[in-house]
Specification:
Elements: H1 3-10, E1 14-18, H2 26-37, E2 44-48, H3 50-59, H4 64-73, H5 76-79, E3 81-85, E4 88-91, H6 93-102, E5 115-121, E6 127-130, H7 135-142, E7 147-149, E8 152-154, E9 157-161, H8 163-166, H9 171-175, E10 180-184, H10 198-218, E11 223-226, H11 241-256
Parallel strand pairs: 1-2, 1-10, 2-5, 4-7, 10-11
Antiparallel strand pairs: 3-4, 5-6, 5-9, 8-9
Helix pairs in contact: 2-4, 2-11, 3-7, 6-7
Length: 258
């Protein structure tokens, strides 16, 4: 059955979950292009890390072509800055400023499409499903890689990247009432390689942890998974954005037309 037709005719709430993956997040834009081409608009959306950044734009009505322009222009230097802190080497406050400049000083609950953003309380390990509060701070918190970026203060909590709890945030959509869920996973289809340095060791460590987490989610028959093949791409290289968008588009079209 053509999945896009199914969603249009089923008249049941459909949720879209956008997972984390650093620079690989550009593939999410390709997924949104496929959705727009099929004239599919989710009833609710969730995001973790870079997925939260993209989800925020979609939820607040940023046109897909504008999201693509933002992705093509984005550079890590645009969203990070050095900060002398015992909590982290860098700060991602510039990411928050970009959200304010691009979307506005808004709260999550003002979104046109119901939105939730996933973060982690680094003091307790608790998963934080943010559905109210300042949008820019929520995206900062969800994208705050622990040990690299200083945690984001949120109601006396210290929040960091949501990938620690749920990198592809499916469960919040179920609680929001989604009957059909499309989940975009950017990390599972990556091939491991023998590490050459500490960066490779850390990268493999994160990917292995995320893959084991997602293996349990994939068993859920109510979820349609979009998993672009991104092994050839570097998580920290923003020069590959155009190719990542193409890979996301191809993977989404394949699922939507399967």
């Amino acid at each position: 059955m053509n999945l896009s037709k199914f969603f249009k005719k089923a008249n049941k709430p459909m949720g879209l979950a956008l997972g984390g993956g650093a620079a690989l997040g550009a593939a999410h834009v390709g997924v949104l292009k496929a959705f727009a081409e099929k004239k599919i608009l989710p009833d609710m959306i969730s995001g973790t890390s870079i997925g939260a950044f993209v989800a925020a734009h979609l939820a607040f009505g940023t046109p897909v072509d504008e999201i693509e322009d933002i992705a093509l222009e984005l550079d890590w230097l645009d969203v990070t800055a050095f900060k002398i802190s015992k909590m982290g080497l860098l700060t991602n406050k510039r990411l928050g400023k970009q959200i304010i400049e691009q979307i506005g000083m808004v709260t999550i609950e003002e979104s046109k499409i119901p939105l939730c953003v996933i973060a982690t309380d680094i003091s307790s390990g608790e998963k934080m499903v943010l559905r109210k509060g300042p949008l820019h701070k929520a995206v900062m918190a969800s994208s705050c890689l622990p040990g690299i970026f200083a945690p984001v203060e949120w109601d006396e909590r210290l929040l960091v990247d949501g990938f620690l709890c749920e990198n592809v945030p499916v469960s919040p959509l179920k609680k929001m009432g989604a009957k059909h869920i499309v989940a975009v996973d950017l990390t599972t289809n990556r091939d491991y390689k023998r590490p050459d340095d500490i960066i490779d060791v850390l990268s493999n460590t994160f990917d292995i942890g995320l893959n084991n987490m997602i293996k349990t989610q994939v068993k859920d028959q109510d979820i349609k998974w979009i998993q672009p093949k991104l092994s050839a791409f570097n998580k920290a290289d923003t020069r590959q954005t155009k190719q990542l968008i193409e890979e996301g588009y191809k993977a989404a079209i394949e699922v939507l037309e399967r």
